[in-house]
Design goal:
The chain has 285 residues and is an alpha/beta fold. It has 2 domains: 3-148, 3-Layer(aba) Sandwich (Rossmann fold); 158-282, Rossmann fold, CATH 3.40.50.620. The protein is built from 10 helices and 10 strands. The chain has helices spanning 12-28, 52-80, 97-108, 124-128, 132-139, 167-183, 201-209, 226-236, 251-256, 277-281, and strands spanning 2-7, 30-38, 88-94, 110-117, 144-148, 158-162, 186-193, 216-222, 241-246, 272-276. The protein has a 10-stranded mixed beta sheet with strand order 3-2-1-4-5-10-9-6-7-8, with helices on both faces. Helix 3 packs across helix 5 (132-139). It starts with a strand and ends with a helix. Pfam families: Usp. It comes from Flavobacterium macacae. This is Universal stress protein.
Length: 285
Amino acid sequence: MKRILFPTDFSETAKNAFQYALKMADSLQAEILLLHTFDMPIIDGAEIPINFKEIYDTLEDTQMAHFKDHIPDLKHIADHSGMGHIRLTHLLKSGDLTYAMKEAIAKQDISLVVMGTSITSNNWFDSLFGSHAGEAINALTVPVMSIPAEMEYRKIKEIAFTNLYREKDFRALQKLAVIASKYNASIKSLFVKKSNSEVTEEQIKTWEARCADLPVQFFVIPHDDVRQTIVDFINNQHIDLLTMLTEKRGFFEDIFSSSLTQKMAYKIDIPMLALHEEDVISDVK
């Protein structure tokens, strides 16, 4: 069975995001692995002998009890949403969240990460990059869905996919089409054609012809302000989920890199699904 990794700190942000994790699990016939991490205290043992194992065990027991205290709240949310049939398991780890997620993905056969992000819709693009969700998007090799703090669940009907008309974009679109079919959602492909773009009309037509069997509508918008064009597209097309193919250089980097003098508030209040370049090479799980 597929597994969705859901990191939680039991905050309201996490509880809101849990609704999306439940809906994704239901659509993909997956179970949810709840992950909670905690930090070990910094202890100076130079003056007195300290049994670090005893301290760790005590702290772990305390955190596990805290974890278990919140499980009923999550089960209540699941039951109230009609998702009580979704299997929930839990994992407690000490240390860095991103490292814990990497380890869980490697050992637990994770297909997707769903997580809340404490950022709000103001300055969404800039603040996401510095959040735990932004770190996960950069560091992990499975798709990551990040849910804004203020976001309450709404049905996914329209999915936007940022496109650069490359072979890897085609593979990503194929994978997204499988996800969209689970929601009976439509996909709207957006290519923001900057003035220095080398993509030709002939390339676009040839590429789109390959997608004739996919439920995708294509939009090519000439503009040099990529971020603002995406925001306008989301608002005008009533998008419920923004999807991007991440990579070390390229479209995703262009969105997040800007000087301090160029930063402005971008109103985004929808989830984002980051598909990873390494992941789309493989078959859809």
